[in-house]
Amino acid sequence: MAKKIEHLHWPDAPDIWMPYAPAIKVTGGSMLFCAGVTAAPVYHSHPHIPEEFESMPDDMDGQARAALENLKKGLEAAGATFDDVISADRFLTDMEEQDDLNKVWAEYFGEAKPATTTVQVVRMATDPRCKIEINAIAVID
């Protein structure tokens, strides 16, 4: 069965623009899970070596772009695109930077509107300089 993604809205929903869908129904396809996506280099030492993260941008715009580029590479490895992402959890260390993230997010996702959750956290496990981490679920044929 071919993949089918339906963005669902409540029957009595007001006619306003939303950057996400409140519910998504998927039939067919295979699921892809991308977790722990940050602006840090994907392939790095464990335990972590702080010097490996020195090239990471220090502002939300730069980190959002780097993280979404890392997500893009993960999606492409499975033959997927941002259009295939149905759900994303976004963890930020400063909720005041969400507008900066959303501007970059819109550039990468375009008309795709996955179900999203955004949460403020104290810090990321990868490096204390990380401002954003993304977990995403995609459905591919």
Walk me through this protein's architecture.
This protein is of the alpha+beta class and 141 residues long. 21% of the residues lie in helices and 29% in strands. It has two helices and six strands, in the order E-E-E-H-E-H-E-E. The strands form two sheets. The protein has a four-stranded mixed beta sheet with strand order 3-6-4-5.
Give a summary of the structure in a few sentences:
By secondary structure, the chain is an alpha+beta fold. The chain is built from two helices and six strands, in the order βββαβαββ. The model has no long low-confidence stretch (mean pLDDT 93).
Which residue ranges are poorly predicted, with pLDDT under 50 across at least 5 consecutive positions? Answer: none
β content, as a range? 25-35%
Element string (H = helix, E = strand): EEEHEHEE
Main sheet: strand order: 3-6-4-5
Shape label? globular
Helix content: 10-25%
Radius of gyration, in angstroms, nearest whole number = 16 Å
The total strand number stands at 6
N-to-C terminal Cα separation, in Å? 9 Å
Q: Main β-sheet: number of strands, strand sense, barrel status?
A: 4 strands, mixed
Count, helices: 2
Mean of the pLDDT scores?
93
Q: Which secondary-structure class do the elements indicate?
A: alpha+beta
Based on the model shown, name its key terms.
6 strands; two-stranded antiparallel sheet; alpha+beta; 141 residues; four-stranded mixed sheet
